[in-house]
Specification:
It contains 2 helices and no strands. The protein has helices spanning 9-55, 62-145. The longest helix is centred in the last third of the chain and has 84 residues, at 62-145. It starts with 8 loop residues before the first helix and ends with a helix. It has a domain at 9-106. 90% of the residues lie in helices and 0% in strands. Helix 1 packs antiparallel against helix 2. The model has no long low-confidence stretch (mean pLDDT 93).
């Protein structure tokens, strides 16, 4: 009997690659989300530092307060933009998770089929070995009896 060969091995390989690509895309989205969170944290630190610097001066000029107010407004607008992008990313992450689940399911389906086919092949192989052993035994027995 020939060795086990799964006829859909090539398709299974491509499905594994697709699942890996979808996983990489999802990781990329999570990386972008972490970067946005990092940017937001840095902006909040900068804003806190700016407020602290102005408030801890002995004398504060109106010009400094005006600049601090404009800076705070800019930072607020920028944080809103980051939050909008963050919401978009959550939507993209949800969609990518669905694509990954689908790709993994497609791969696992072929993987299970391969396991079943190999079990069937192993059963047939074992039967063939038993039949061959029986024939050899009977041939030896007939020679001994003759």
């Amino acid at each position: 009997m020939k060795q086990f060969q799964f006829s859909l091995e090539h398709a299974m390989h491509w499905r594994r690659l697709r699942a890996d690509m979808e996983r990489a895309k999802l990781e990329s989205l999570y990386t972008e989300l972490r970067n946005l969170d990092g940017q937001k944290s840095l902006m909040e630190e900068e804003e806190t530092t700016a407020h602290h610097l102005v408030k801890n001066q002995d004398s504060v000029r109106a010009q400094q307060l005006f600049a601090l107010d404009r800076f705070s407004r800019y930072m607020s607008t920028r944080k809103e933009q980051l939050e909008g992008r963050r919401v978009e990313l959550f939507g993209q992450i949800a969609q990518q998770q669905l694509r990954l689940i689908s790709a993994q399911r497609d791969f696992e389906l072929l993987e299970k089929l391969k396991v079943h086919k190999k079990e069937d092949w192993q059963t047939a192989f074992n039967k063939e070995q038993e039949d061959l052993a029986s024939e050899v035994f009977l041939a030896k027995w007939e020679r001994q009896c003759s």
